[in-house]
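Lab notebook page, bench 4
Experiment: in silico fold of construct C2
Operator: M.H.
Input chain length: 394 residues
Purpose: comparison with the prior construct
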Amino acid sequence: MPWNDNANPGPWGSPPPEDERRDKPERRQGGGPRGPQRPNNGGGGPPEFDAALDRLRRRFRGMFGGPGQGVRPGVVAAILGAVFALWALSGLYIVQPNEEAVVTTFGAYSRSETPGLRYHLPAPIEAVEKVAVTNLNQTNVGGSPDNEQPAESLMLTADENIVNLTFSVNWRINDAARYVFSTRSPEEAVKAVAESAMREVVGTSALDPILTTGRGDVETRTVALMQRTLDKWGAGITVVGVQIRSANPPADVAAAFRDVTNAGQDRQSAINEANTYRNRVINEAKGTAAQIVQSAQGYREQSVRDALGEAARFNQILGEYRRAPGATRERLYLETMERVLAKSNKVIVSGKGTTAPIILPPDVFRPRTPSDAPPSPPPPQAQEPQPQPARPQQ
């Protein structure tokens, strides 16, 4: 294809009209041969872009008609349909798992939606407000260590003392619709109710329990009072808990109150030690008493059994005496003398045919100890008595 064939546009597009070429002739650079003709598009863009832009312009002129013809009805309907479709699709929204959506119709409550893909009539008919119902919210009263607020933390106790008390409130939304419509600023409402409830509880409590061991009771009473107030307002809020971060006397008297606190701790420590000693002594006394009782019971049992044994022995001897009175009396006499003389020192001196004095060793008259005594004979067993000659009566 020759470079000057204007019938075929070629890769550089169609050549400009004759009048434009006459008005704006191409400049030549140097004296070399003339290059291919490039259309003057005014913007200096690529030829393909200019051609596409021209086609788009012609198409829009065809859609909207020429001068004096007006806009075609089909175009108007297409535009209106596209606008309506975009307006209708604007009602799609997504509720996250931790949220609940509150739908209002012309500003009035309509319904609540659970998590998922939901739809509402587009604005201005319906509107949606999403509320995080599972999140645990926290409100601080009294400021923070870096930003103290004495107007909120200084409170008067029942014993007319001042305590510097800061605390936190943990709360959760239990009804999204009431949370949105009942109060204008729910967080400010929670803070105001918390401060009011804490002041009321502290105003009915003494200072010492608040500073030492009574914080748990103060927190519990504050939670109950806050919940009653918020339920009365219909705020749709559940108070999870109240935590006292710090409870101290004012800075001017902090040292004196610190001494009082230390004295109270020493007092409690002394009470605990006394209780420990009391418990130990009581337990030891109970153990000793139980031991004495058991010993007494054992002695009683032994005595009863010994008595029963002696009675049985006496009955046996009585039976033997009835069968042989003389032999039984002789045996009883010998056994009795054996028991009596076994515990005494016996010295037998025969004076027949002696001319000189008898000198006995000094240990003869020494008192005998139980270890020196001979072993006691075993108790007699019941046996048939042997006939013995009767002892002459003296």
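Observations: Residues 20-36, 382-394 have pLDDT under 50 and may be disordered. Strands lie at 92-95, 99-105, 108-113, 116-119, 126-132, 137-141, 154-156, 162-173, 237-248.
Next step: discuss at group meeting.
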